[in-house]
Design goal:
The chain is of the alpha/beta class and 244 residues long. Helices cover 34% and strands 14% of the residues. The protein has a 7-stranded mixed beta sheet with strand order 2-1-3-4-8-5-9, with helices on one face. A two-stranded antiparallel ribbon has the order 6-7.
Length: 244
């Protein structure tokens, strides 16, 4: 149970998020210098290492539930490639993360074989809608027990009016106690809200997690993990809803 202090902090952050989330990050210009596909400079933000450290607990439990020792991870949205380094440092070296156009792979029916789909997608234009539609179709095609995904996205995604129309998967959410801070690469054009060090925290974000028929059991395992920790060492919580 969260303390009143946590609730006050969360309430303040939620108020800030409501202001930020109504801003639609429309592209200021197209940038294809480093990528094999058209990009929006505002989308170039690398996820923090702490987010992957939190996800490591999830992946470790998925290994146990699926009896797999070496998960194949796939992140189709390429920014600067740092996720491969982060995951390798956590023991997950079998990762597919290439400078390719995700949507072309879908159209060509050439998406790679993988155990876990994990990504922090671009938020501009309709990328999130296209991603959720793809995952929803994949779940239907492969049946619910064969699809696992972990998506690092803003909390406002779960509040979109068409959210449950886009994806009908059973999910839970893993949210950090301290909001994740993202970093824009040095080579990218930095807007005013990004500091000189490249760090930015424009919204609250969480991991959106689905593990097929193992989803509920996975969340239970994570809750058991939390109960073994002291309150001062808890860095994240899980819930069936973003509000929770």
């Amino acid at each position: 149970r969260r303390s009143s202090k946590h609730k006050l902090v969360e309430s303040k952050i939620e108020e800030e998020e409501c202001v930020v989330s109504v801003i639609d990050p429309q592209p200021k210009g197209k940038d294809t210098r480093r990528h094999a596909f058209v990009t929006n400079p505002l989308d170039h933000c690398e996820s923090p290492s702490v987010a992957f450290r939190h996800l490591q607990v999830v992946l470790d439990e998925i290994c146990k539930l699926t009896c797999k020792k070496d998960l194949i991870l796939w992140d189709p949205y390429y920014c600067d490639g740092s996720i491969k380094r982060h995951m390798a440092s956590l023991g997950y070296t079998n990762m597919i993360h290439n400078n390719q156009d995700f949507y072309s792979l879908i159209e060509q029916h050439s998406t790679p074989k993988h155990d876990v789909f994990m990504t922090n997608p671009p938020y501009s234009e309709n990328h999130i809608d296209r991603l959720l539609q793809y995952l929803n179709s994949t779940i239907k095609e492969k049946q619910r027990n064969n699809t696992t995904f972990c998506l690092l996205m803003p909390n406002w995604v779960a509040r979109k009016k068409n959210y449950r129309e886009l994806i009908q998967a059973d999910m839970f959410y893993l949210s950090p106690i301290k909001p994740y801070v993202y970093e824009m690469p040095q080579w990218n054009e930095r807007p005013d809200h990004v500091g000189e060090n490249g760090l930015t925290k424009p919204y609250l974000s969480s991991w959106y997690i689905h593990a097929g028929t193992h989803t509920d059991q996975l969340q239970q395992k994570l809750e058991q993990h939390l109960r073994m920790l002291s309150n001062c060492s808890i860095e994240w919580v899980t819930a069936k809803t973003i509000k929770g």
